[in-house]
Queue: 4 jobs
Job 1
Amino acid sequence: MPSGAGAPLLAASDLCLVRGGRELFRDLSFDIHRGQLWQVEGANGAGKTSLMRILAGLSRYGFDGRVQRRAPLLYLGHHSAVKGLLTPRENLAWHVSGAGDWSDADIDDALARVGLCGYEDVASHTLSAGQHRRVNLARLYLCRAPLWLLDEPFTAIDRGGVGELEAVMTAHVAGGGAVVVTSHQALQVDCEVRSLRLGAGGAQ
Amino acid sequence: MSAPSTTRFCLRLLRRQLVLAVRRPAEMGNPLLFFAMVVALFPLGLGPAPEALAGFAPGVLWIVALLASLLTSDNVFRGDFDDGSLEQLLLAPQPLYLGVLAYIGAHWLVSGLLLSLVSPLFALMLNLPAAAIPALVCSLLLGSAVLSLVGCIGASLTVGLRRGGMLISLLVLPLYVPVLIFGSAAVQAAVDGLPVAPYLAILGAMVSLGIALAPLAVAAGLRISIDA
């Protein structure tokens, strides 16, 4: 599907956010179409996470502007949403259960692809922070939502994992999806990266 | 891939909550232990005369059950709020009303239901007449469901606060009052040999009203807490 075809998956218009007496961004308008990869950049405290939560619909008050969501979306935030008392398999099965019916084989396959083969049945509290993150990121292999909102997905992920994650994002964009990602590091992907810079000069 | 049916989603959520509860047996046992400890304190404070204890038993058992339920309701959403699971529940393409109902149902199963089932033991400790025990169990089964429904409203509003324990009591205790009145009155009626059914019917009406309205309030409370 060519970039920018059809109605946008998500349209934000005139977003304006003030936090603690400081204006984080104003008059922020953009359309996210299929086949686009957006990177939200900005210094710490520039409002990247706040913007992602507004786009996801978790923040519904306290900002001006309008967000129109026309497609199902997947939001992965700072918290891993992994329960220490459940095993990775149970955690992942629960995470994806709202959006689809997946067999145990699908779940195990997704866990194997994020390098958690052999850890399916251990209690998650024995896993490291990076492995928690990987349980969460395994959702990307099962998710059918066209729009992904990933807030700092590379946190605690090792170098190999970052490469795989970039490959998944590239494949998703090539397959007609869209990704919005916040990250401080440059993305090594084979597609155009649109930059949304939050900061002193407003958004560009 | 189509979205799974809402019923299946809710059953999965209920099972997840129950698995989590079973894997933390200490937290499940705490309200029961609390119940036993407080009931054991009354003979020490009021004097061990069996007749006096029997007179106080309906009210005492109900108040302690109410406090035990309050003790656990603070934690219903706390863990899921802290680790981000609650955000994902809010974003899941499923009606939040039914998801919330699954949370409340799980809370009732591991607190109210267990408490009702062991209550005859505590009733004997306080010398409640045996004839009143069925009424006690029935009124607790119905009443504790209302306590769970109302307690979860308080929990959803205070989940974003670090120390919501005191606030939740202030929010929720006034709403517990009608349950306490009709619950203990049901047991008292059974002690006096009067019909119990009208009291149980009123408790049943409260459960119905709670199931219809409380999840709406909880869902709104969760959205506010996540937003803050």
Job 2
Amino acid sequence: MKKFLTVISILGVLYLIPLIFGGNLMAQTIMSELPEETGGLLEGLRHFWEYTGFSNVSFGNIIMIVVGLFFIFLAIRFHYEPLLLIPIGTGILLGNIPFPAGAGVGIYESGSVLNYLYFGVTQGIYPPLIFLGIGAMTDFSSLISNPRLMLLGAAAQIGVFGTFIGAVALGFEIHEAGAISIIGGADGPTAIFASAKLAPHLIGSIAIAAYSYMALVPVIQPPIMKLLITKKERLIRMKPPRAVSKTEKILFPIIGLLLTTFISPSAIPLLGMLFFGNILKESGVTDRLADTARTKMIDIVTILLGVTVGASTQASVFLTGSSIKIFALGAVSFIIATAGGLLFAKVMNLFLSKGNKINPLIGAAGVSAVPDSARVVQQEGIKSDPSNHLLMHAMAPNVSGVIGSAVAAGIMISFLM
Amino acid sequence: MEETTTSVVDWSQIWIITGVGYTVVFLALLMLMLLFKSMPRVLNLGLSKKIREVREKAAARRNGDTKQEKYISGEVSAAIGLALTLYFKEQHDEESGIITIKRVARTYSPWSSKIYGVNNNPR
């Protein structure tokens, strides 16, 4: 422990020296005070020092490194979306290691390795591949057995359109507002895809906001649920879902693909890949492909997406007033989306017969964020009645939220492109 | 990045995008919902037709106007049974049940010869 503290303190001092004395000046000041005959060696050392991160560090870099470490801490300590927060957190560290301009290592420097990997983000390549994997691992049975729950996924998209209005009101340009609004869909890949098309310069902020709030679903949603859903409503037991035939499972992605992409062609890369992945899974004859899509492929793309999105948050680009506004809008959009789903579930109950009522808590799962929001619904349901398991029911609005947010993103793109 | 727009925001356009967009999302999922609500009925159409046919046949049999069912003799049944048994039995490999150590005969090669080994230096 002592050794650890010593190392940390030394590193801290090294980071602080240039901050206090002002970056490169520090090296020059030290070196100029030394006698000239020590020349060559010291000149070399001076060059080396100027090239190090300690010499080039800025206050913004330190803040972002702390943010990155916080993400990694959240993932390890509280298990908040670790598959996303660890790559993103590490990416933030990578993106904020200071280096002299023109070194060819930064994510925004053309020709650098990170820049090549970032191409998949800026051109919207990674999100559809993630959707392929999601499709190959999603079981739509609960949705097929109780199709009316699809409406909850649609209702929660109020978060997208509410954020759109909010972003315009906060002074964002209309394309930027469209990109920011997709944070309300609580779907990271969709948000990245939309911002790559509508406002590429905001990808970093939007992606970080979307993934942060997705990771914080267990913190954001329960208070809203408690506020809007009464104790009596939380105790409602839903009918167990009926068995779904194989034919229905195969027909769902085919019909879903045709219907949704005809309505919103701009979302073809997302919805096409989502339903394609599901066809691979449900057809029963392409197990190898489905298995690759839902395991190795989605893992590889998640790693690349997480690291590059994290690395895109270079302090000089990321720490701006816009990022703060985007973060604020993101929080509001999650609240609006959750409230929209919950309230719509309550409204639906007004029209349903006594035996067919739905537990309004599952409305919160309409915000996408698969499967975290469904898990939160399950946990909240169990708190009220330990024998009332809502997970299967909540998965229906959850996956319909994925479809809904992709359709919303497609509509936004087709309106604004 | 433009933090504040210099031009006046066209709020009518914003409201149109919001209204139309949200309605279209709702309609897309509503259509999907309606399709899949009616799906079991559509899929059961063929099944209910078959059920109806079976019921009609059963009713006709009860009324005594059944057609003579085909008679299958015992020999034929036995032959079918044997064929099925043989077929399913052959799904697995027939093993001899004899366990022996297989002798492997390797052809001679000077590369592995003990006579020409590096340790056999003439003294």
Job 3
Amino acid sequence: MDTYYDPADLAKFGDIGKDAPELGKKFFDYYGAVFAEGALTGREKALIALAVAHAVQCPYCIDAYTTDCLEKGSNLEEMTEALHVVSAIRGGASLVHGVQMRKIAEKLSL
Amino acid sequence: MSRSAFEDTLVQHGLELKRDETTTLQINVGLACNLACRHCHLEAGPIRTELMNEETVEAVIDCAGRFNFTAIDITGGAPELLPHLPQMVVRLAPLTSRLIIRTNLTALELPESAALPALYRDHRVVIVASLPAVNAAQAESQRGGGTWETSINALRRLNEFGYGSEGSGLELDLVSNPTGAFLPAGQAQLERRFHQDLQRRYGIAFTNLYTFANVPLGRFRSWLEQSGNLDGYLKKLAGGFNPCTFSGLMCRSQISVDWNGFLYDCDFNLAAGLHHSGHKLHISDLTRLPLPGTLIPVGDHCYSCTAGSGFT
């Protein structure tokens, strides 16, 4: 094994159900239902998935949802904006904790 | 000769690709084009000189008069570069209820094409225009720099002539091919988006949008090879094989003629050099339309038309 992440392994995702078939089936049924067209379009859901894939830094998901976004008609401009939403929330989540820092520092300081 | 993977797939599904009634005459007037799009299965472009000569134009018009085609579909290259195009429009329009001309839009903006929109309008020609995306960067990655603005200008001009307006009876259809080694978006969903974006951003109206998978032939195949995408793309197409597409495949109901007058079952077989009925037959020698049940030569490129919702 040259690397832990081999793109060819993505196609083996379904194998995860082999030793726990009932749980696997429940998961994949749920997964399929989540990505079906609903109040959100398939294209919108793919963009959300792409953003979350970057937040959780999953190479398989980034591969899968980059392709899915393109195949659902999104373009790089939209996909890049989605990543900036991730960056804003991730960065913002750190920065907003500065409120705690300030509160504690203020309490401790003269 | 070894059997192609596509033929194996047909055998596995118990299918044979056979012709149905022939209702459409597709005319490829040549490979000369003002653009050299990166997905072009015919490798058309500005350095290509292949164009239908007057004798072949006459043979094609004669054929259209001998038989009854419900649709006649003129493609290229860029049909606008054919000097005989206006003459073809005038003489073919009365011979069919649906005369279609394909355009890359930018060729319509060439000075020598100035009179074409009015001619098309007067003869109720259906215009089928390539527009891969509603995004300049994606569209130009396929068609070349500077093509986006020219395409938008051409669409606006066609709208001014009434094309794409509801109730005008002047049909302006768009065709979107993916801008890379991936499958096209769902047609209905993408059509909604094109309508919204083109109307909102440019005030452009059109009739229908068709989405088609890129065919792994010609310049697109070269790019797939060079970019290391060929295997993955072929697997994707083969994995998307959908037997339900079979009944509507265009090769079953059209006969395609090249700029030299030779016949094929579709424009992709033309690009692959697979002649109709397996041998070179000239349109002037066509004494009757192909019989339903005639086998259609196939190759692995045929997966493009059978993947997902298909290419009909």
Job 4
Amino acid sequence: MFHRFRGGIHPPDMKDATRHKPVEALPPPARVILPMLMHAGAPCEPVVRPDQEVFMGQLIADSKELVSAPIHSPVSGRVLAIDPYPHPNGSRVLSVIIENDGRDTPHESVHPKGSVESLTSDQLLRIVRDAGIVGMGGAAYPTHVKIAAARGKCDTVIINAAECEPYITADHRLMLEAPEEVLGGLRVLMKLLEPKRAVIAVESNKRDALDALRRTLPGKTKIELTALRTRYPQGSEKHIIKSVTGREVPPGKQPTDVKCAVFNTDTAAALHRAVTTGQPLIRRIVTVSGSAVANAKNLDVRFGTPLIDVFNATGGFREPPAKVMTGGPMMGAAQHDLSAPLVKGCNALLAFAEADVPLPGNEICIRCGRCVRVCPAHLLPIYLYMNERKNRLRELERLHLEDCVECGSCSYICPGRLHLVHSMRTGKQKLQDAKREAG
Amino acid sequence: MDNQLTVSSSPHIRADESTRAIMLDMLIALVFPLAVAVYFFGWRSLSLTAFTVTCCVVFEYLYRKLLKKPNSLGDLSAPVTGMLLSFTLPVSAPYWMAAVGAFFAIVVVKQLYGGLGKNFLNPALAARAFLAGFAALSVHVAPLSDPRVPILGSFDADAIAQATPLSYLKPVEQLRLDRLPEEFSWWENLFLGQIPGAIGEVSAAMLLLGGLYLVIRRVITPRIPLAFIGTVALLTFLFPRGGIGGYEYMLYNLLSGGLLLGAVFMATDYSTSPVTPRGQWAFGIGCGLLTVFFRYFSAMPEGVCFAILLMNTVVWLLDKIGAPRRFGRGWTRREG
């Protein structure tokens, strides 16, 4: 039943701070900031004007590009401005800023779409697209694009509920508190993709979530519930496929090449809500935690809420944070401007006190080989690092740098404190630049 | 925000691992064989080790100070080299020779190549090979003769010197195999360490204990020692020499001489051994093959030192051919 992937690490999971805390709904702020880039792919263009009245769930931005996802207003109110604004990715992105009238008046488009059984597969795909749903695990890849690419090509659908990053308990709480939404979302996916197997895969440290799902399952079902080994990066798409099916996605290929499609837990819940209530993607569950946070919490937050407001809603900081990140500590992005808004892919907001921020030190590789031992992509980070430093691009290709999933295991384990993942990213950039120059 | 937020590339957490902690574990593991050396050879083994360590630390400090490089004493790698170097010396070795060895190990082999992690030869072994020309190192003091081994000063080593078990087995020397079983008992002499030999190599029991400690602490993987010792064991068992049985001959080869010290502590040196799993197996097997080759066919009674040094030079090649299978290629389809 179980397949193991090579390597990986076992960092302290730090989830006790929020594991038992029910999700609290955070009242939306006085104004929300909605960047035109809330997803992976082409940015949207606003379809509203300044001063226009908008309602909760109303489409405010869309794109004609294939890989993109529309954006909806998470509140009702008035469009204040459409201006560039700080984005969690570190740059400034054109954003629609909406003044909240506090009434949450729903838009007319928000209504139940019917039962999964009554809708055709094409109708369902349209609903997914129009609801602006993206992968909620962090990558924020538009879900309708993923589904469209996988239709007729996969025999296994996996709900990725591994949540292997330390601190984060958003998916865990979702499964405990609304297992029917996760299962409902999976049924939507099963209708769309018609797989032989439908698996909800959870890490073994969340057995209570499995129990909650099992209690909700009807007696006769083909949905499988699986407890995976607790090991980072179990939640990586390629590795959860390996764990569940034993298959390995070939280099440069997609999950559909091994007949698999993987969706995040919260994505499934969003699919369920889009069909049953008609609500587009305007909010998500976020774990707020870390040593600098006064009260760690799981919050249900509307998109566009400034990060600082999310922190303040939990009771602010215990001590001045030295580092703030969106997402988990292994793959999350460090933030410097907390006025930036919450976007779709952000499952956690962490603030670390100074004592928990590793100081940059002498980077000395002692060739201990731990990075090789832990690399789940079967790479040799030590040699990639050396070659990247010396700009030996051909060696980087020969050592398959492109296979790096940037999980961070090598940097995490390195006793010489080398910034290995950073070097991998730089190396990929150098390769890309070289290709552009050559081509 | 008033304060500055640190912005850096992920990951944002680090394991509680450091070079210093690893080297500290090495030092702890090396204390086991040192304790036995003090018991069997007397206090001079401790003072000689302490002197060698001090020399290594001083040379490392001075080199980096003179070349205006950051002080690197905190990583504790110099003391490890010092201990390993002294372990390869007989207790009768003069202090000045230890100082020469320490200079060669730290300055020539390690620092001139860029310091920790950059050297391609094991510093302690390279220094030992450098010192091999001195005749004084070829004689070994019998254990439990400490009354005649002064802590300071030199002494007439030949007066108390004794041949090592391996030199008995050397075909080119006078074969006295008939006397071996009476002189050396398996348990007390060869396993516990009451045999003539270098300071750190005599006690198989303590070397294995130190190795076990390193494996449990995950400082080393057992691949290289297992492959190294296994290869020597297999070959000496299959092709015994000197008219004794394969099993006996194998035990002599495993338990006496520098094999265990080399396999556990020298061949596993990070800087000078492969990082890939398959490369590590190949490295260990190569060390074993060369050791047997030297012991069988060369004029030296030992072979471990040169076997490891030779294998050190092909580490890059072993890593190149030992890289793990590419993810997504060549996996076996076993549906669950």
